[in-house]
From TrEMBL:
Na(+) binds at residues 227, 259, 326, 329-330. It comes from Magallana gigas. This is Sodium-and chloride-dependent glycine transporter 2. It is a multi-pass membrane protein. The lineage of its organism: Eukaryota, Metazoa, Spiralia, Lophotrochozoa, Mollusca. Keywords: Disulfide bond, Glycoprotein, Membrane, Metal-binding, Sodium, Transmembrane, Transmembrane helix, Transport. It comes from the Eukaryota. Its main location: membrane.
Amino acid sequence: CLISAMVSIYYNVIIMYSIYYMFVSFVSIDTTLPWQTCTNIWNTENCRIKPYPKLSELNERNKTMELIGLNDKSCLNKTVDDVNSLFGTSYTSYMEFNSTMLQSNVTKQCEIKFRTASEEFWTRQVLQLQETPDGLYDIGDVSIRNLICLLFAWIFIFFCLMKGVKSSGKVVYFTATFPYIVLLMLLIRGVTLEGYYDGILFYIIPKWEEISKPKVWGDAATQIFYSLGVAFGGLLTMASYNKFKNNTLRDALLVSLINCSTSVFAGFAIFSLLGHMAFITNRLVEEVADSGPGLAFVAYPEGIAKLAEPWPPIVAFLFFFMIFTLGLDSQFAMMETVISGLSDVFPYYLRKHKTLFTFVTCMIGFLLGIPQVCKGGIYVLTLMDWYSGSYNLMIVSLCELVAVCYVYGVNNFRRDIEMMLGGFPNVFWVYWYVTWCFITPVAIVFIVIMSGITYAPAYYTKYEGVYTFPDFAEGLGWLMVVSPLALIVGGMIVQSIRYGGVAKALKAQPDWGPALDENRIGRYSPRDEPDFSKDEPAGATNMGYMGEKGRPYVVNDKNGYDHRL
């Protein structure tokens, strides 16, 4: 619950960004999108929308003029002496350079680092980072427009959750399917832009030297945990509303397959657009591949801006509406986890007032999100994104594995599954036993340990360079990591005291089993002594004899048969 609560606070800020972009796209339907041009008040002279020239197709004179335009003039003037000493010339001005000199290592330092119009709209208009040069030491004033959008996001979440899964479940039918249409449109457009091929190659060709770095595996684990919702509690919360004999195996396989396939599919759409961005800014793909929310709010808008008129505003609105719906799916699950989790602990007070409690919870989330809508709020968001759901997710999942496989017992777990779904071939169980009991726990421990050994402080990449978070921010980040883990330790202590020791706290309680009596079969069959004060059923004798394993059955009915209950 705590992990989902922390992630929900900053996740709804990302939804807020999509709402703002959606509004901007809607009001621009009759004109052009603000990130289609470099003539806005927030743009700088380094903003560029023209494609990078194809130098190989130009003659010497045109190539030289293009290269001069791609370099800083004052910097080129300072390299005249170095060029003369390298090439044995006696030039007095950079205007005398040829294309070879302008592409040498001497003048490489003078290349202008261009930014796309979408990149400047994101950093200078939406985030307004130019007004907060001191990072977390001064996050600036609250952005009123972002604050209003954040309030709208939380109110929308409230109305979707006020009746629980009955309301949110209906909304998801649309929000889970609509994104595929928009992703397909973006992919088709992306592969028709210049430079897309470099982006696709960067996406599909692995860098084998990176495989040996533990951080890569840690990032991959965190990504799949986020993507599948493992250890967030959302899967448990939503599954608790299923029918007892729901085919959870089918659901697990389908969700995993569709989820990972969608990620791969979306990757092609993303990196085709990133390749185009790298092409028009004369930068490497890895230099324009921003991390965090900037990817969705820089790369995709850039591709949309390249559509033929009048499509950019329309497609932009649909795209950010898609981002909005995607965010809602995740936010529904996380907030329902928090609300249901607390309501189940205090049912008498909270379950009777579900609507009011949901509203209060959403408003608390709104208030805690206000620092992230300041002009330096992206630093707060990045800090929460970096720590609130990272190491703790893996450790919580490790605790789940240990609890199920080694405390409760993997064989008991197997019998529970077979009671609900029926039997499975032994090959399935061999695979599950190996992965649950050995491979997955060992992999998680390895990733956590190696990630700790190679740990690096959190940072945020921006145009001016990399901003590294100060020590006090690191302390707050690690507090977010250990807080959920402290609850596990606290829960162990409380339960041990409540039940008279650790050994007793690790044993199942007498009422453990399916919630409904109609589902309590097999080893969960009723074992209570019968009430002899009531009349016996017609034809039954010796009612209440306790058979093998303590299970009651009726002996010698009128037909002479034994009927186990």
